[in-house]
Write a structure and sequence with these properties.
By secondary structure, this protein is of the alpha+beta class. It has two helices and 15 strands. The chain is globular. The protein starts with 18 loop residues before the first strand and ends in a 5-residue tail after the last strand. Bound molecules: 2-oxoglutaric acid and fe (ii) ion. 2-oxoglutaric acid binds next to strand 13 and strand 15. Keywords: Dioxygenase, Iron, Metal-binding, Oxidoreductase, Vitamin C.
Length: about 200
C-alpha cells in the first residue's frame, strides 16, 4: 500500500540497476576505437582517490580517449545515450563527463573486484556509469561485468558493441580473465550532489 503525501513530484517506477543498449556503435566504429590502443599511453589502472595501483582490488591497463575534435563523435553518441537513458529512468541532475573516457584492457589474470564508481572525493560527482563491450565474447573467457542485486550476482551482456549503463552507486565487478583479452570503454557522467 502506498501512503502518499504530495511533495509536488510525481512518483515514477522506472529504476533499473542496469540497462543495456545494442547497435549504437557499428562494428567498424568499434574497430576504429580499438585501433586507438597505444601501449605507450597506457597506465596501470589505479582506483580513484588512491593514486597508486591496488592489485588486490584491480588489475588492468587503461588509457584515456583524448577529448579532441576527431573523437567528438564517440563522446557525443555516449552523451546522447546517457541523456536519453536518464530521461527515461533516473532523472538525475547531470552536467557531463568530468573525466575523459577510459579505454580499458584486461589481459589474462586481470580483474576489477567488487566496487562502486561513486565515493568520497572527486568521484562523488559521478552519477551514471557506462561500459561499452569492445571485444567479441569468444575472444576471452571470464571477464564478466557483474552486478550484485540483493544477494544475486547478475552478468551483463557480453556482445561486442553493447552499452551498459548503471547508476554509479550500484556495486559491480569484472571477474578475472582466464583466457584471452577483453577491452571496454568506461565513462562516468557527473552532476551536482544528490538532493
Ligand atoms: O570494464 C568494465 O566493464 C567495467 C570496469 C569498471 O567497473 C570501472 O572501470 O569502474
Ligand atoms: Fe566500476
Amino acid at each position: 500500500m502506498a501512503i502518499n503525501y504530495s511533495f509536488g513530484l510525481p512518483l515514477k517506477h522506472n529504476f533499473a540497476e542496469y540497462i543495456y543498449y545494442q547497435g549504437l556503435f557499428l562494428p567498424h566504429e568499434i574497430d576504429r576505437i580499438l585501433s586507438f590502443w597505444d601501449d605507450s599511453k597506457t597506465i596501470e589502472a589505479t582506483v580513484s582517490g588512491k593514486g597508486k595501483p591496488d592489485e588486490e582490488l584491480r588489475k588492468s591497463s587503461v588509457m584515456f580517449i583524448d577529448h579532441i575534435p576527431e573523437n567528438e563523435w564517440i563522446y557525443k553518441k555516449l552523451a546522447d545515450l546517457a541523456m536519453h537513458c536518464n530521461n527515461e529512468r533516473y532523472w538525475f541532475d547531470l552536467l557531463g563527463f568530468h573525466q575523459e573516457l577510459q579505454l580499458t584492457r584486461y589481459s589474462e589474470g586481470d580483474f576489477f573486484d567488487w566496487h562502486l564508481d561513486f565515493g568520497a572525493g572527486e568521484i562523488s560527482a559521478r552519477k551514471l556509469s557506462m561500459t561499452i563491450q569492445l571485444s567479441d565474447p569468444d575472444e576471452y573467457e571470464g571477464g564478466d561485468l557483474q552486478f550484485m542485486i540483493n544477494q544475486k550476482v547478475v552478468s551483463a551482456p557480453r556482445e561486442k558493441g553493447t552499452i551498459i549503463i548503471f547508476p554509479s552507486f550500484i556495486i559491480h565487478r569484472v571477474t578475472p580473465i582466464t583466457k584471452g583479452t577483453r577491452q571496454s570503454i568506461v565513462g562516468w557522467v557527473s552532476g551536482p550532489p544528490y538532493r
